[in-house]
Write a structure and sequence with these properties.
With 371 residues, the protein is of the alpha/beta class. The chain folds into two domains: 4-72 and 95-164 and 274-351, FAD/NAD(P)-binding domain (3-Layer(bba) Sandwich), CATH 3.50.50; 165-272, D-Amino Acid Oxidase, Chain A, domain 2 (2-Layer Sandwich), CATH 3.30.9.30. Helix content is 36%, strand content 23%. It is built from 13 helices and 17 strands. The strands form four sheets. A seven-stranded mixed sheet has the order 5-4-13-14-15-12-16, with helices on both faces. It has a five-stranded parallel sheet with strand order 7-2-1-11-17, with helices on one face. Strands 8-9-10 form a three-stranded antiparallel sheet, with no helix packed on it. A hairpin with a 5-residue loop joins strand 14 and strand 15. The longest helix is centred in the last third of the chain and has 29 residues, at 323-351. It is globular, with a radius of gyration of 21 Å. The N and C termini lie far apart (58 Å).
């Protein structure tokens, strides 16, 4: 039996382990986090029918997903810096992209795996084509190593010299808790799904989570990738004041999402791999998700593609007698799909923060709906 090692226990790595398990193939996942809840797992995801949802069907977990998915999360509001509304869309019927919190989705995947499949608190310090080395000095041999270890993958250098580069956009993440009870005005302004407040080179993006929070991403175009880390410091009040000064030309409802939050501010400079990133076939090694095709979030495909990558790789390994044939088949399909999504993401990152972007998005959505 081939020994399959998966480096990284995010959504992609866990989905691969589950699809392999469903098809009678064992694997082991090595994950740096001490547990599935060791840190904040991030916000909410819209899972698409042909990518993330398809992966969950292949994993035999679609019903569990549907039990927790929020169809109302598809609602979208787009406003400009003055608060003028250009899109206010609440679908009458589910549109095929329901939302689910990352933490809930991760829990579904973890609970579906046999005990011992994920080795938590395992720091991978070195990777060779047929083995990994852990922080405690243990060496683990493998017939196949899959890098599902995100933006700064330790597996990627076996295949490619590419490294993520700063995109020119930075987020500061914050949130408001128990919004319906404590912040009803903000809850009404954001709505039941997502709200995008877009200005020239800046934006305030908010999304409802299933735990009663609104998660807010304050977006700033700047070519200095270290600037946002210096803006956010150990004093939340000082960070909040700096952000409010930067957004002094934004309408009060948008500024309020910054002013009234919980006092947690996390700098998140956005990085991406080159559009079209690929590699020549290297025996016994491959990548999926952000390790393979890191992109900005402005195509809405990151987690969806990671899960689809995982499902297709698992199915390819089940369908082929030898690993190399499976990897060749998997990569041939993954490369062009990832390139198209990355190109869209890079284009949208620029377009969303140009003057008049909210109005243009409103016009485009009106044309698409035939209005």
């Amino acid at each position: 039996m081939k020994k399959i090692v998966i480096v990284g226990g995010g959504l992609g790595g866990l989905t691969l382990a589950r699809v392999l398990h469903v098809n009678g193939i064992q694997s082991i996942v090595y994950e740096l986090d001490d547990s599935p809840t060791a840190r904040d797992q991030g916000g909410t995801l819209d899972l698409h029918e042909d990518t993330g949802q398809r992966a969950l069907r292949e994993a035999g977990l679609f019903d569990q997903f549907r039990a927790l998915a929020r169809d109302e999360g598809e609602a979208l509001r787009v406003v400009d810096a003055n608060g003028i509304v250009y899109v206010d869309q609440t679908p009458d019927e589910p549109g095929g992209r329901p939302e689910i919190d990352r933490s809930a989705l991760k829990r579904i995947l973890v609970e579906s795996l046999p005990a011992g499949t994920v080795r938590w608190g395992a720091k991978v310090t070195a990777v060779k084509p047929s083995s990994i080395t852990l922080g405690d000095g243990e060496t683990v041999s493998a017939d196949l190593i899959v890098g599902a270890d995100g933006a700064w993958s330790k597996v990627r250098p076996l295949l490619s010299d590419a490294r993520p580069v700063y995109s020119g956009l930075s987020f500061v993440e914050t949130h408001l808790s128990d919004v319906d009870a404590c912040h009803p005005g903000h809850a009404a302004f954001v709505g039941v799904g997502s709200m995008w407040g877009l200005g020239d080179g800046k934006g305030v993006i908010a999304q409802r989570n299933g735990d009663g929070r609104i998660r807010v991403y304050v977006a700033i175009r700047t070519e200095d990738d270290n600037w946002v880390s210096t803006l956010v410091d150990s004093d939340p009040a000082r960070t909040r004041s700096r952000l409010l000064d930067l957004f002094d030309d934004f309408a009060q409802p948008l500024r309020g999402l910054i002013a009234d939050g919980d006092g947690v501010f996390v700098p998140r400079p956005i990085h991406a791999l080159p559009v079209g990133h690929c590699w020549s076939r290297v025996p016994g090694v491959t990548l999926l998700g952000d390790a393979a095709h890191l992109m900005s979030p402005f195509a809405g495909e990151g987690a969806n593609l990671a899960m689809l990558d995982a499902a297709e790789l698992g199915l390819a390994l089940a369908a082929h007698d030898d690993v190399e044939s499976a990897l060749t088949s998997f990569e041939a399909a993954m490369f062009p799909r990832a390139e198209a999504a990355a190109a869209e993401s890079a284009s949208n990152l620029v377009a969303f923060f140009e003057p008049g972007s909210a109005e243009r998005i409103g016009q485009l959505m009106a044309e698409m709906s035939g209005q």
